[in-house]
């Protein structure tokens, strides 16, 4: 996956806009959030490993995941917008970001 910062902010704004922070799901080991595509809500998640890769850290505690997500939110949302575009904007399909996507940057 090409580096998401290569997608201009104007293009990202046309794809998805910021939604809600839902929180960390310890069972899935992923942080859940939403983004908005027009009138539709797009469910998104980023794995804890991908968050740590973006942050340059390892083993962040579950209680610290929301703070970590909020600090990295802009970059995570660019990744989600890019992934959404690559999926062909399929409705009702959760956008998932994994460590392999971050390492490809």
Q: How are the elements arranged and paired?
A:
Blueprint: H1 9-15, E1 17-25, E2 30-37, E3 40-47, H2 48-55, H3 65-86, E4 95-97, H4 99-103
Parallel strand pairs: 3-4
Antiparallel strand pairs: 1-2, 2-3
Helix pairs in contact: 2-3
Over all CA atoms, what is the radius of gyration? 13 Å
What's the CATH first level?
Answer: Alpha Beta
What is the third-level CATH name, the topology?
Double Stranded RNA Binding Domain
Distance between the termini: 7 Å
Element order: H for helix, E for strand: HEEEHHEH
Q: How would a crystallographer describe the biggest sheet?
A: 4 strands, mixed
Instruction: Provide the low-confidence segments as ranges.
Output: 1-14
| CATH structural architecture | 2-Layer Sandwich
The structural class is alpha+beta
* Count of spatially separate domains: 1
Description:
With 105 residues, the chain is of the alpha+beta class. The chain has a single domain, classed as Double Stranded RNA Binding Domain (2-Layer Sandwich). Helix content is 40%, strand content 27%. A 4-stranded mixed β-sheet has the order 1-2-3-4. The longest helix has 22 residues, at 65-86. Residues 1-14 have low confidence and may be disordered.
């Amino acid at each position: 996956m090409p580096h998401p910062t290569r997608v201009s902010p104007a293009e990202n704004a046309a794809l998805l806009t910021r939604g809600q922070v839902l929180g960390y799901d310890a069972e899935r080991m992923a942080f859940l959030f939403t983004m908005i595509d027009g009138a539709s809500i797009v469910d998104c998640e980023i794995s804890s490993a991908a968050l740590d890769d973006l942050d340059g850290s390892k083993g962040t505690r579950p209680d610290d995941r929301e703070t970590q997500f909020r600090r990295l939110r802009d970059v995570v949302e660019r990744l989600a917008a890019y992934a959404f575009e690559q999926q062909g904007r399929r409705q009702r399909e959760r956008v998932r970001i994994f460590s392999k996507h971050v390492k490809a940057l």
